[in-house]
Every structure is written in C-alpha cells, then in structure tokens.
Write a structure and sequence with these properties.
The protein is an all-alpha fold and 63 residues long. The protein has one domain. The protein is 68% helix and 0% strand. The radius of gyration is 11 Å and the shape is globular. One of its GO terms (molecular function) is DNA binding. This is DNA-binding protein. It comes from Enterococcus durans.
C-alpha cells in the first residue's frame, strides 16, 4: 500500500489556510468527526482512508 502521508498533510494545510474544521469536513462528506480526526492523524489506514484522502484532494484541487 502506498504512503499517503503527503496527502494528509496537504489536507491539514488546506484546512488551516481556509479555516475548515474537522466538523466541517465531516459534515460535508457524511463522516463522523472522530473518523476524520483519525484519518488526518494517520491512526486509520487502508483503502477506504486512501480513497477518502484522494477524494478530498480532487474535490478541492489541493496541490
């Protein structure tokens, strides 16, 4: 499985720059705040997490 930590960091940087909270992201994607927190902190891993990270990056055109 690939290392997607760069994507996690890019999302966290984007959230900070745009004043987006974990609650906001959770509500927008229909996930729990706890799950979002675990994903962004790297505690949850796997195909579903990788797909979510890629979805957020694509949706917001994070580069």
């Amino acid at each position: 499985m690939s290392n997607i930590d760069n994507g996690r960091e890019a999302i966290k940087t984007f959230m900070k720059a745009n004043d987006i909270s974990e609650y906001d992201l959770a509500a927008a994607y229909g996930k729990s705040r706890t799950w979002i927190q675990r994903v962004l902190n790297g505690k949850d891993k796997g195909p579903a997490v990788n797909a979510f990270i890629l979805e957020v990056i694509r949706d917001h055109k994070i580069r």
